[in-house]
Amino acid sequence: MTTHGRIEKPAPQILRGQVLSFVRDPFAEESPKDAAQVHEAVVLQGGSIAALGSFDALHAEFPNAAVHDHSGKLIMAGFVDAHVHYPQTAIIASWGKRLLDWLNSYTFPEEMRFGSRTYADELAARYLDLTTAHGTTTVCSYCTIHPESVDAFFSAAQARGQRVVAGKTCMDRNAPEGLRDTPQSAHDDSAALISRWHGVDRLSYAITPRFSPTSTPEQLEAMGALWATHPDCLMQTHLSEQTDEIAWVNSLFPEARDYLDTYEAFGLLGARGVYGHAIHLEPRERDRLREHDAALVHCPTSNTFIGSGLFDMAGLKAAGHRIGLATDTGGGSSFSMLRTMAAAYEIGQLRGTPMHASELLWLATQGSARALRLDDRIGNIAPGMEADLLVLDLASTPAIAQRTARAADIWEAAFATIMMGDDRAISEVWIGGQKV
Ligand code: GUN
Ligand code: ZN
After folding, report:
1. Cβ–ligand 1 contact at 302 (below 6 Å)
2. What is the pLDDT of residues 326-371, one digit of tens each?
């Protein structure tokens, strides 16, 4: 906006409440709550976070700001969901199968439909509506083999001003007719999508071979070559989710040392690699992932729903792994990162390592942003960060309210909403400094 030739800054907005800002990784603290600070207010201006601090000081510094009073509520970074399949929105919560049968029975028939741009547009909008209502402001999504499914998703996110990562899922074997590409077409279609979308507005591209069983060695090699040409892209895939799957990988790649080696041998292991699930890892795989500082993504509702296993959060965090948190919609049974944190907590309990609310909230925001190498822009409330945030009602249902009334501190209150909350707890969502 210009008036008399002067550039005017957009009007600032002050959100007043309990503003949660992480200053360190809570997993590295003696007391996890020491990793965060709680401020009285945050100022948003021009799509970014301008300042945080005491309400009186900020009000004096920004006297023309509009004030949004959320006293009693928790204001925090929007959730970052580091591994989703938006095309599986309509088949979420499908009954009774484990991974390989679940893919063949439910997933592949649904993904077939995304050759229609009209259908892809409808589902991309539906998915982003649902996730925004659940407080998620950034996702990293698999699309389908159809370039149209990627165009639909990026177009929808661009229109909403959302920061998202996505990529065309590549598969050239062990998938039905109509859902297979080739090494060449996967390479060329992905390259064309990178030049169309990567770095445009808030969008970025992830090279996306689905998983080793659905790619020939030739296709994995083509994906590795593409990543070498575009090293600033993420590369996302699945790793060691179920024991049957691992046995199948071993039989398809008899020369590989382990599952990770089927990627490593083709240039698909690197710092910008994002590996979903990573439950049943061999010591060599853990070491190699750590050496490369690759990201692992924990998908707890999926891991219990499809019966995959118990991710070793405590052991992997202690070893210094980069870890994000995700719903894995629609293998996961929820769109909610609150529900996902609850499931992560429960899996931690089953392994004898319960997580603190501070650790859960960090994983759902900064942990996932770090996994996606976006933590310099999103995943925390701090000056200079992009203004993607949410307002959490800590008494959104009678059951939660009566528990929050007993809470001794903000962490106890937040934990009740983590364990029992859903989209009713999301009072407001801001994306790019705009209230949605
Ligand atoms: N492994 C390969 N594809 C998929 C998928 O769509 N969902 C899950 N959970 N695991 C996979
Ligand atoms: Zn997945």
Report:
1. yes
2. 999 999 999 999 999 999 999 999 999 999 999 999 999 999 999 9
pLDDT per residue as tens digits for the range 301-329:
999 999 999 999 999 999 999 999 999 99
Q: Is 79-371 a domain of CATH 2.60.40.1840?
A: no
List the domain boundaries for the chain.
2-78+380-435, 79-371
Residue 7 has pLDDT above 80, yes or no: no
CB of 245 within 6 A of ligand 1: the answer is no
Find out whether the beta carbon of 107 lies less than 6 Å from any atom of ligand 1: yes
Cβ atoms within 10 A of the Cβ of 46, count? 12
Does the beta carbon of 241 lie inside 6 Å of ligand 1?
A: yes
Other C-beta atoms lying within 10 Å of the C-beta of residue 346: 17
Query: CATH says 2-78+380-435 is which class?
Result: mainly beta
- Say whether 79-371 and 2-78+380-435 share the same fold: no
Q: What is the CA radius of gyration of the chain?
A: 21
- Residue 366 Cα to ligand 2 midpoint, Å, equals 20
Q: Which two tokens stand for residue 334?
A: 């929820």
Report which ligand 1 atom has the smallest distance to the Cα of 330: 7
On the CB side of 37, CA atoms within 13 Å amount to 13
Mutation to probe ligand 1, out of 210, 237, 239, 304 (largest number of atoms < 8 A from CB): 210
Query: 11: CA distance to ligand 1 center in Å?
Result: 44
Q: How far is the CA of 147 from the centre of ligand 1 (A)?
A: 19
Residue list, CB under 5 A from ion ligand 2: 276, 328
